[in-house]
Amino acid sequence: AGAWTRAVAAGSDFRVTLVARDGRVVADSGADASLMDNHAARPEIAAALGGNLGVASRRSSTVGMELFYLAAPVERAEGRVGALRLALDLPTLEARLAPARALLAAAALLVGLAAVAAAALWSRRIARPIARLADAARALATEPRGPESGSRKAGETRRFRLGEGPEELRVLGAAVETMAEELASRAREAEAEGRERSAILDGMAEALLAFDGDRRLRLANPAARALFGLAPAGPMPRLGILEATRSTELAALVERATSGSGRLETELALYGAEGERWFQAVATPLAASGPLSAGEPLSSAGPLPAETGSAPAGAVIVLNDITRLRRLERVRQDFVANVSHELRTPVQLVKGFAESLRGGALAEPGRADRFLAIIERNAGRMESLIDDLLSLARLEQEGARLQCAEERVAELLEAAREAIAPRAAQKGIELGLDCPPELAARVNGGLVEQAVVNLLDNAVKYSPPGRPVTITARAESAHSGAAGDELVIEVRDRGVGIPAKDLPRVFERFYRVDKARSREQGGTGLGLAIVRHIARAHGGRALVESYEGEGTLFTLRLPLAGPVLPD
Q1: pTM here?
Q2: N or C end of the chain: smaller count of CB under 10 Å?
Q3: CB 516 within 8 A of CB 499
Q4: Strand ranges in 264-404 using DSSP code E only, listed in sequence order
Q5: Which residues of 420-442 are buried (b: 16+ CB within 10 A; e: fewer)?
Q6: What pLDDT is recorded for position 542?
Q7: How far is 306 from 319, CA to CA, in rounded Å?
Q8: Which phi and psi angles does 61 have, rounded to 5°?
Q9: Is 150 helix (H, G, I), strand (E, B) or coil?
């Protein structure tokens, strides 16, 4: 066995060792086998005796060198009989492997370079369409939208479809383009809805306010901004409800609406520069669809149905001005009360004195004549009252169909002065007239004469004896740049005047500054109301200026060209 191992190892650098099945060294080409230890515990021998190839690297205690071991099982027909081990010192192995290692390194380098080149080509093929897709998506996300953007034509959609790249990227590009088209369509719809909503809110005569969940103002239409003195344009200030409206009633209404009471409606008064104004207020809660922000569209939070039970995120208040309705209702009530009062007194007097006459006063001529004079005077008073009421009704119903013609103003005023002249002469009052003879206007002559007669009648009634009353007429410009487009008729007296507190109401029906004196002088309380209606029927105005103790100036301002009839 020793000769065989030496013969095998001859001509090579390998050391050959035969090991029996029990681990005993049978022969070794480089040492005396009888002097060697049992190798059963050596890892490579143990692996070979187990039927496998064994590999190990360690310092040999026999030759004193670092060796690399390879062991294989030795088998015969009767079974495994031992192991054959080859050993080679590491410096020799390194020298033998050096050429192969250089070749292997070169091959690895070539393979690496080829892989890098292939990866670069592949990544460029993928990256180019991805970059195009990313650029298009970035531009879509950052481009301005709205009517002022002007970036693309209406309906134009950015292109995302790819003609190159993997199939997956082409599918992704088509999907993104479809999504962009849908987004563009929705943006156009939202823009149209926003313009429509803005037009509706701007055109509303009612004031509209929207508050968020913190009771902070987030929206107000132009009518609301004007009503509460907010800036007419620009960002909405984040004011609390009391800061914005200065109304505790509105604050309480919003609180009740957002506390689960649902839609609420009430009437309340607001006070401002124009005095007291009455409004019908409707408060509707907003559904809690997420946190509200100042820029969020109003339609994003719809009205909260009472049955949902979700917590409101705010409220919308609509204020409808009913001041005029309130005033008309008060005027109607006052009118009914005044007519009843004005008719009751003369009716009672007529009835009372008629009963006195039937009771025996007819037998006394002196008393009968006095009673009949009282009856006649009160019947005349009722007739005047009814005539004035009929005049007012006719003016209100037929004002839009007023028959007008070109009239000489001086002739109308002269006729009015002649009608009042006898009464003025009794008090020694001079009626002055100042009117250009060529002044003409398109008016209803009878009504203008009636209005001036009423004004002159009042002026004579309330002027002390001997104080003059003047009538003047002229053409004036109502607007800058318009030459003489308005007829101005003024009646001025030097009488007792009208207190300042009564001036706003002197044109109301049955309103009297001095009730006792007015009735004593036979007034119905409707003369100035008729004057105002005549002025309005002509498309003009009736004005008054007065100072107590200094006199009163009544002015009629009528269009020279006549009233503008509705289409």
Answers
A1: 0.45
A2: C
A3: no
A4: 264-272, 275-286, 314-321
A5: beeebeeeebebeeebeeebbbb
A6: 92
A7: 22
A8: -80, -15
A9: coil
